Amino acid sequence: MxxxxxxxxxxxxxxxxxxxxxxxxxxxxxxxxxLAEHPGVDEGLILCTCxxxxxxxxTRNGGADLRAFLRNYFLLxxxxxxxxxxxxxxxxxxxxxxxxxxxxxxxxxxxxQILGQVKQAYATARAVGAVHSQLDLLLTRAFAxxxxxxxxxxxxxxxVSVASVAVELAKKIFGALDGKHxxxxxxxxxxxxxxxxxxxxxxxxxxxxxxxYERATQLAARxxxxxxxxxxxxxxxxxxxxxxxxxxxxxAIFRREHGELFLSRRKxxxxxxxDIAVPRDVDPEMNKLDGIFVxxxxxxxxxxxxxxxxxxxxxxxxxxxVNIEVERFQARVQALDVVPTIVSLQDHLETIRQAxxxxxxxxxxxxxxxxEIALEKLTRGIINxxxxxxxxxxxxxxxxxxxxxxxxxxxxLFKLQEKAEETTxxxxxxxxxx
Amino acid sequence: xxxLWLRVxxxxxxxxxxYALVALTRRSHLLNKVALPAMTLGMVFQFVSLTEAMxxxxxxxxxxxxxxxxxxxxxxxxxxxxxxxxxxxTSPGIVVFPLVFVLTFIAATGQQPFLLTSPGMRTGWLFAHxxxxxxxxxxxxLSFGASLLYLVQERSLKSKKDAGMMSRLPALEVIxxxxxxxxxxxxxxxxxxxxxxxxxxxxxxxxxDFLDPKVLLSVLMWAVYMIMLYTRWNAGWRGRRAxxxxxxxxxxxxxxxxxxYFSTIHRFVQS
Lengths: 434, 271
Known about the structure:
The structure holds two protein chains of two kinds.
Chain A: E1 3-9, H1 15-21, H2 28-37, E2 41-48, E3 52-59, H3 66-74, H4 78-81, E4 86-89, H5 90-101, H6 113-128, H7 134-152, H8 162-174, E5 181-185, H9 189-200, E6 205-210, H10 213-223, E7 226-229, H11 233-236, E8 242-245, H12 256-265, E9 271-275, E10 292-296, H13 297-364, H14 369-397, H15 403-413, H16 417-424, H17 426-433
Parallel strand pairs in A: 5-6, 5-8, 6-7, 8-9, 9-10
Antiparallel strand pairs in A: 1-3, 1-4, 2-3
Chain B: H1 2-23, H2 29-57, H3 65-87, H4 93-109, E1 115-116, H5 124-159, H6 172-205, H7 213-235, H8 239-258, E2 268-269
Antiparallel strand pairs in B: 1-2
Helix pairs in contact in B: 1-2, 1-4, 2-3, 3-4, 3-5, 5-6, 5-8, 6-7, 7-8
């Protein structure tokens, strides 16, 4: 068992850095394939949300150089992002994954979206074949842990979503939201949620613009709003007091000149841009205009952090659960790891025993049933006596960190290597060659 | 006696002053609770003082400069109270309370009040002139205070940091409305006040000397006031630019006030 991960998240890197490492969804399968083919990597998974980009891997002995993978894949100047990277192995990697899935590492601790995002990443990786055995086990467990945390603590229940923070900020700018117009640019779960919150607090009308007009119409229908063709975006935007933008555009779609245009059309009435897209949709320059307030995903996090204290206690309980689960998982995986070795060792010795009995039987001549039993008992007894200590040692070592070396030694001493590879690792080998 | 009541009022206003100074750095729940009642009591005593002064002098007009400063403070407080009752916010107090305190302080401690001895003093026109202009001043000052608060709140929103006490400020748009409405309300008062002043001056001197510093500055102040309203109404200027204009108008108002000390037609003569 060798889990390893490398990543960057909202805590270690500002959005300027994260947006450069973001992998758009259509390109994920290709990225996953390349990750799985990276030297030393057996299985791989990529989690890419607006707050984090993480590469998880199940690696062969000695691990893999995941930094090299990033360098090869992104072709960016490593100096730009490497200071923001974190890397975990083994137990730490498992814990990190559990924490991410349980939403303990989220921008808004306890927010429910991350679990869905991890599940999505898992489904994509499975479809590509990048996840099949060990990582599969780990992820399945991670989902169970997330569920347990949700059920046993109140971390999720009092979650202050980014949406409600957005409402709070809007109220700071506009006071009552009655009669305010909301513009949804690009569709997405989070922006939809934010719009719903704003409506619930009195916002009047909703305009929706999306690259695909049909999607905009659908969304608008759901909110009783008005669908706008994307080409009309700049001509209609000044009607909105609050703009929630979450498009997948690679470059900012709202720039300073647009802001100036909107302001002059609006007679300088303030505008509030909520930018939850990564890469960002709104040029940070816009925030410098009088009367325009731009909050990107990181700023929202800052605003959220005020609420974190309330949930700290629950989060602590969740951390305890995670720790217990990490240990349990490790014990399980490692035990699973020794079993095949023990089995093949026993098989190996049994074959030797049988061969030796067959060899001497000719010389002994016909044996009485009693003698037959005695011979059987004698040989078995010798083997069992000899094997008792090694097997118990292996079993206890299953809980310790030296298990992999021990297994390695046993396999080499008894030449179990090839046999074991054939039985338990066959799937990996075929994939490795293909 | 009026001076005694005024000093009692000053004592209460001091609470507001402390509130304003403390509010800039940290929250204090005790002061929050105490400030508003204290300021209200201050207003009551100031009202008593003003009424008594009028009764004693037997005139409707505010013959002494210090009485008029006290009157101005009272009007500013009235404006503040109207805002408070409408928007339920004491935030403008951060700017208003110190000014009220300073005005009342000058009025309450002045040893020898100047007297306005221009002829025609007892006419209703003059009273109208003073009351209207002062209401205009008060509105202008509230608006000025609101623009300062607007800037503070805007900065806090732009910097995206949760700025302790500033998080208690009203919403940006509410501050904006307070400023704009005070401005709107003050303008007719200021205009009518100036017209009343012109009438008084014409009745007294037969003509208006436009080169007199007081007249010149008053017209200048009125013009800045006009520009503020116009840019706001036409281009929606607010925030930084509006604050600059409001500062300009406020400075013009202060200078116009100071002109009383060297104007020929509007001179306060030592008694």
